[in-house]
Design goal:
heterodimer; B: 8 helices
């Protein structure tokens, strides 16, 4: 419990240490703390902004989706209409083609029948002539009897 | 720690020996006040602890980044933040020097107090064996010179800030007119009160820390004395009482460092306010 000069030495040490702390310890730590506080504040602000951005984006996405759905429906009905139309066109075209083909076939068949008739007619005429020849056993002059033959031919 | 029975010192001698400082004169100080004497042990340990505190804090400050802090940085930052918060609440004014003073005081006193955790005989015995030093008191805050030295520093800061904030004239005016009022008859009473206040603040500031640490040290010595009887009871008592007191002392060490810092701030804060 004695007092001595240690007192003043301690006093000096006190100020030296305090000065040292003020000079070299306090500023960098406070700087780091302030910077970190700033960073955290920025981070929080960014998070807030991100949240509002997200809400915005979600709203936008929903709207886009609705648009897409609407236009898809539109497309689909358009496509259906077009398909129906195409089908209708194809149907009429097919009907037309079929009728044309039928007409052509009918015409061709008529011609063929005519031709066959003609051929038949000639052959029948020849046959008749040959038959008559045989019956008459006598040559019939085709020139002399041409009129008769042609008359016969037309009658067949 | 505990000496064997054959060379066990008499209890009184043991205590007195442990409470004797290593002085520059080489012998015990006889007068109560003797400005020619310096307690070498107190100075050595207080400067060592001050240097240690500064080194730890400088390492933390050097590495301080605004990114993710490490453990040391986190611990020092918590400390700095605590001191900053306290000083902001107590001192209204420029705290560029005051807050670092409070931090220094807290860490320094904490480290000096913590020397009390070393076994009471460890360092004195080592000093005697290896360096031939016969006296060694390692807790600078258990030396009145150590604590009063610091509280005197706080007093000087109080005077400095009184003059800085209020101007020399304003401060002298306050010395004579506060706390009782501005009347010529009250001047001497006011002045006397102010002087008593300054002295009481400073003495109690230093004495409080000294008393706590001195008492703590003394109790450790008494517990060590119990062990030095080298009986089963003594050994048991030493272990149990020593453990309890050391655990309790953790609280005292931190608490006293905190109180010393807070009072430093409060006294300097008062210097910033007009009565």
């Amino acid at each position: 419990m004695n007092l001595n000069a240690t007192l003043f030495a301690q006093l000096a040490v006190f100020f030296v240490l305090a000065w040292f702390t003020m000079k070299f310890v306090w500023p960098p730590i406070m700087k780091a703390l302030d910077e970190r506080a700033g960073k955290i504040a920025d981070g929080l602000a960014a998070a807030d902004k991100a949240k509002t951005d997200l809400v915005h984006a979600e709203k936008k996405a929903a709207e886009e989706l609705r648009h897409a759905r609407e236009s898809a429906a539109e497309f689909r009905s358009g496509a259906e209409k077009q398909a129906a139309q195409l089908l209708e066109e194809a149907r009429t075209e097919a009907a037309r083609v079929v009728s044309v083909a039928r007409e052509a076939a009918e015409a061709e068949a008529g011609v063929a029948a005519q031709r066959a008739k003609e051929a038949l007619r000639e052959q029948v005429a020849l046959l008749a002539v040959a038959g008559a020849e045989k019956i008459l056993r006598k040559e019939i002059n085709p020139q002399a009897h041409a009129e008769l033959l042609s008359q016969l031919k037309s009658e067949l | 720690m505990s000496s064997s029975t054959e060379n066990a010192p008499v209890a009184g001698d043991y205590i007195v020996h442990h409470l004797t400082h290593l002085t520059n004169t080489g012998h015990k100080q006889l007068a109560v006040i003797d400005w020619t004497v310096i307690n070498v042990d107190t100075l050595f340990w207080s400067i060592s602890m001050g240097a240690l505190a500064i080194i730890v804090m400088i390492i933390a400050a050097r590495r301080a980044t605004s990114g993710v802090p490490g453990r040391l940085q986190g611990a020092v930052e918590m400390l700095v933040d605590m001191v900053e918060t306290q000083s902001k609440a107590i001192v209204h004014g420029d705290r560029q020097f005051i807050a670092p003073v409070a931090l220094t005081v807290f860490v320094w006193v904490l480290f000096m107090n913590a020397l009390d955790f070393l076994p009471v005989d460890l360092v004195p015995r080592a000093a005697a064996e290896w360096f031939g030093l016969h006296h060694q008191r390692i807790v600078p805050t258990a030396d009145l010179n150590g604590t009063l030295g610091m509280s005197l520093g706080v007093l000087l800061l109080c005077l400095y800030y009184n003059i800085k904030i209020k101007g020399f004239g304003g401060w002298v005016h306050e010395l004579f007119t506060a706390p009782f009022g501005n009347h010529p008859l009250l001047y001497p009473i006011n002045f006397a009160m102010q002087m008593i206040e300054f002295v009481a603040k400073t003495v109690s500031h230093g004495m409080r820390l000294f008393g706590n640490m001195y008492a703590g040290e003394l109790v450790f010595m008494l517990i060590a004395l119990m062990g030095s009887t080298a009986t089963a009871m003594g050994f048991f008592g030493h272990v149990v009482a020593g453990s309890i007191w050391a655990i309790f002392h953790i609280l005292i060490v931190v608490l006293q460092a905190f109180i010393f810092m807070m009072l430093t701030l409060v006294y300097i804060g008062q210097a910033h306010e007009s009565h």
